[in-house]
Structure formats: structure tokens, C-alpha cells
Amino acid sequence: QVQLVESGGGLVQPGGSLRLSCAVSGSILGINAMGWYRQAPGKQRELVAAITSGGSTSLADSVKGRFTISRASAKNTVYLQMFRLKPEDTAVYYCNAIVLTSGSGQVNYWGQGTQVTVSS
């Protein structure tokens, strides 16, 4: 069984910062790409940031220059550092990981989601 546990969401004022963390645990042989998605009310889930096992990153245009993604491979953890937050960043943020397992090969897993609210 593989679990993704997210933390770090909350309420922050416009211009503030938050850091999200996502730890992967369970019977895994390795982790390929990891990423963060978000879904605002009434909108589709969108990719915010992704990072490969080699450390290459990609960011949505809407967050470039404000968000960074990083991973601590030894801890099977991915982080999303968010600066200069805007009200339009308000959403539920989901962690995603492509995990290599012994029985099922590569499997796409999701976290439970963490709420980020940017409001004064």
C-alpha cells in the first residue's frame, strides 16, 4: 500500500508565503515524476508544478517566478514553496507521484488534498 500525505496548507494573506510538503510511504521501489496540481471551485484540476527523478522542473505560467518545486529523494518527499500568493491561487492542492511498485509496475498516486486560501 502506498500513501501520499500532504501538509502545509492554510489561510494566508495576499502577498504571503506557504510551503506544502508531500511524503510518500509504503511498498515502493522508486519514485519517478512528482508534482502538484490544484483545483479551484468550479474549475478543472490543473498542473501547477512537476519535478522528474533527475530534478528537472516545470511550472505553470501562472506561477512562474512565484512558486518553486523541489524534492528530497532520500525522504521520498516533494515540496511546493509558494511566494507572493494571490487570491486566484486559492484552491485545493493535490500531490501526485508516479511510483514504481513491485507488484504493479508504475502506478499514479494522489494525495488527499490540502486547502490553500489566499484572502485578506
List keywords for this structure.
mainly beta, seven-stranded mixed β-sheet, four-stranded antiparallel β-sheet, 11 strands, elongated
Poorly predicted parts? none
Multimeric status of the protein: single chain
Mean pLDDT: 95
Number of strands: 11
User: What gyration radius follows from the Cα positions, in whole Å?
Assistant: 14 Å
Q: Which band does the percent of strand residues land in?
A: over 45%
- Helix proportion range: under 10%
Largest sheet: 7 strands, mixed
- How many angstroms does the end-to-end distance come to? 40 Å
General form: elongated
Q: Count every helix, treating DSSP H or I runs of 4 or more residues as helices.
A: 0
Q: N-to-C SSE series? A: EEEEEEEEEEE
**Backbone structural class:** mainly beta
Please describe what this structure looks like.
- The structure is a single chain.
- The protein has 120 residues and is an all-beta fold.
- It is 0% helix and 59% strand.
- The protein is built from no helices and eleven strands.
- It has strands spanning 2-7, 10-12, 18-26, 30-39, 46-51, 57-59, 67-72, 77-82, 91-101, 105-110, 114-118.
- Strands 2, 4, 5, 6, 9, 10 and 11 form a seven-stranded mixed beta sheet that branches. It has a four-stranded antiparallel beta sheet with strand order 1-3-8-7, with no helix packed on it.
- The protein is elongated and about 45 Å long.
- The relative contact order is 0.32.
- The model has no long low-confidence stretch (mean pLDDT 95).
